[in-house]
# Entry
Amino acid sequence: INSLDLTNNQISEICNNTFIWHQNLMKLILTDNRITTIEVGAFNGLVNLAELSLQLNRLNIDVLEASVFVQEHLPSIYLSNVYFRHKAVPKLIFRNITTLTKLHLSNSRLQAIPDGAFYGLENLFELFLDGLMLDALDENVFSGLNSLITLNLKNNQLRVINPSTF
# Structure
């Protein structure tokens, strides 16, 4: 199997080593489930995974930090319409995913993105932050994103843009 689509099921938990025997899996879509728990090691063995979609789930940032954001070779992560219990992206949360090229956090009820949130993402070229509740951006929030081509910030509540933000 190269692509596995489990959209619109009732999955609430992804257990350790769930996909251990699927080394060829390149695309994993877990959109529109009831996922609240992803155990550490849930994605063990997915050495060729290029795209992970967890859209429309109720995930805690801490769960993602311990399970998803430790994947060293994961080019695309889709977290749009995820209900985050935290209102801000923690600093350095993406630091281990140096191969990340696409990150979608649209409509995720986030209210703040601090400096350093995207540290280490030198290869990121597509960042979607639309439909959040951002009213301000720290001056250096996007620093280090030298490969960034597309930045979507529409439908936020931004009031002031500092000259050094971009």
Residues 76 and 120 are 15 Å apart (CA to CA). The chain has one helix and nine strands. The longest helix spans residues 61-67. The chain has one domain: 1-166.
